[in-house]
Amino acid sequence: MPPTLITKLKNLILNKNLVNLFYVIFLFGLIFICSAIYFQPLVGDDYHYRDAVISSLNFSDYFNYQYFNWAGRFSKILLSYWVFSNSLNLVLYKLFIIPLILVTFYFFLKKIINIKIEFFSIEFVILFICLWFIFPAIDETIFWITGSFIYLIPLLFSIFYLGLFNETDDKEKRNIFTNIFYLISSFLAGSSQLQAFVGCFVVSSYFIFLYYKKNTYRFKRLLPFYIVFLVGGAVFIFAPGNYERLENPNFESSIISTIYKSVLFIATSIFYLGDVQSSLIYFLLIFLLFVLFSKKTPIKILSNKSNYIWILAFLFSLVSMIPAINAITTRVIFFPIFFLTIFFLKVIFFKYDSNKQLKIKNISFYILVMLFILESFLGSLTNYVYKKEHDIRMNTIKDAKINNQDYAVISHYTIIPSRLTHMLNPIHDQNYMNGISKKNQIKIKYNDNLPRSKNI
Fold first, then answer.
1. Where are the alpha helices (DSSP H) in 294-329?
2. What pLDDT does residue 8 have?
3. Would you place residue 175 in the very low, low, confident or very high pLDDT band (cuts 50, 70, 90)?
4. Hey, which residues does 445 pair with through a beta bridge?
5. By the 8 A CB rule, do 159 and 192 touch?
6. Which of 277-291, 348-362, 430-444: highest mean pLDDT?
7. Does residue 406 sit in helix, strand or coil?
8. Is 444 helix (H, G, I), strand (E, B) or coil?
9. Which residues pair with 294 in a beta bridge?
10. 3-class secondary structure for 320-363?
11. pTM of the model
């Protein structure tokens, strides 16, 4: 290949106009993601919590029922009441999810990974897209409204809480509003999700003990947040609603079976519980980040105890799910994968050079952005069609009830769900329709003459 052609290719790769064009494409990808979240219809438990909010006299009545009879997850209780109080709140919540993720991700890079990266720089976009593809079951943990209350929001508060313990600047000043925000984040990080609490407890306890021994000033500065976090954890763990549900288990299992399932669960968690495709994507993206950002990994970083605490957080967040081993799904590795990824990022960015591999970074940036917008566009389109089919279903049931018909005939969903689409499988969909049938006092039948997707 002639040198002039090689030079032209290099110049094209580093061309600022081309980079700016892909920034615009990435922005459109984010817009498509927002629209996919907006179009995702209410599913399953969304209706349960919406009906509970509507039937409650006030927030106190709703809180008491949820906390004492269902579960002690504070973020879910607070947000479900606000979101389902009126349709405008639901729309606002959906539209703010992606901006919240972006802002928190920037905080995550600065405070937990401890790297200086400009917001919306090429490095920022590469890391964001890689982690976007890495996170498991995002249809249930981000796009499903109730799932986001239980997984996404506790993750965001956990990041703010853990960022306190990973600070490198003891002289950073915080005003009263910042301290109040961190106190609230600390409480909600402890009181919103069991795996989040366990992982954060392992990490923050290690650092609080380390600072007690070596940095008294930082220890005293962080102790109030740690205490508030523990209070939040206690309020969550001892919620009567948790034990109300445990008294009525859906499965019966022997000790040997539980041990076998637990070992299998922990051993396969890094492989996304047997999802070979997702686990392969995970390791390929981690390898890509090593190539793009890491210098030769020294022995020193592998012997750094502060990094291995994230491995312990990964393991203990898995162990905490053993009591519910018979109800395990892919979404329960959402937090473990997060903690494991922090360990890898800590190793990768031990010695970070922002000027390293500029051409390869740009090529990776272009490829990842194209993959991102392809997924976001298809996901948005799929969810749009999904919402239309869902609305037709619900309107059919509503019209049948108004017209005093004996039964309503609804269609199966015909779409094939994307990674951004949370759809109940046929069995759960049937159970959900049975619940709708009892609530509306009308029989519901499927139109089996119409095609339906079998890939759900």
1. 299-302, 305-319
2. 63
3. confident
4. 409
5. no
6. 277-291
7. coil
8. strand
9. 352
10. CCHHHHHHCCHHHHHHHHHHHHHHHHHHHCCCECCCCCHHHHHH
11. 0.91
